[in-house]
Design goal:
One of its GO terms (biological process) is response to amino acid. One of its GO terms (cellular component) is cytosol. GO terms for molecular function: sequence-specific DNA binding. This protein is an alpha+beta fold. Helix content is 36%, strand content 19%. It contains 5 helices and 4 strands. Strands 2-3-1-4 form a 4-stranded antiparallel beta sheet. A hairpin with a 6-residue loop joins strand 2 and strand 3. Helix 1 crosses helix 2 and helix 2 crosses helix 3. It is elongated, with a radius of gyration of 21 Å.
């Protein structure tokens, strides 16, 4: 019987427990993680290492408070391009990758081409972003802006 490809092993209940705890506290020690998940420290270390190697855990990060860093205004922007060709998509995507105010950019199906999630300090900063950065990107024909009045739910945790 051929050896199982470790990248294609299923996620079991123990892995899911580990992932839930790590999403809650990515800085937890291996000892504390093993205790919370009912594993030996060695087994816990091996499982987390395997989850990282398989790409299930793609990284660790610190979550920052945007208000304390003068980036309190959250904006969603629909972007409609002038043409929907591979070269225009590639040019737009390349430019968006280099813009730090853009937290997320998603190509979508529907009435527009991209949905952007942007953080800036205030409406004046957004006006500058819109006029000097976004509308200057290749292919941008039209935008629609949605300023967030209240963040009702914000999480990075996946339901595992």
């Amino acid at each position: 019987m051929p050896a199982a490809d470790s990248k294609n092993l299923p996620i079991d209940d123990v892995d899911r427990r580990l992932l839930r705890v790590l999403q809650e506290d990515g800085r937890i020690t291996n000892q504390a993680l093993s205790e919370r998940c009912g594993l030996s420290p060695a087994a816990c270390f091996d499982r987390v290492k395997r989850l990282r190697e398989r790409g299930v855990i793609s990284g660790y990060t610190a979550l920052l408070d945007p208000e304390k860093l003068d980036q309190a205004l959250l904006i969603f922007i629909e972007v409609l391009l002038d043409r929907t060709t591979d070269d225009v998509f590639a040019a737009f995507a390349g430019h968006v990758q280099r813009v730090p105010q853009v937290l997320e950019c998603h190509m979508v199906a529907g009435g527009f081409d991209y949905l952007l999630k942007v953080r800036v300090s205030d409406m004046a900063a957004y006006r500058t972003f819109l006029g000097e950065i976004l509308t200057a990107m290749p292919g941008v024909r039209e935008t629609r802006t949605y300023a967030v009045l209240e963040e009702v739910k914000l999480t990075t945790r996946l339901p595992v």
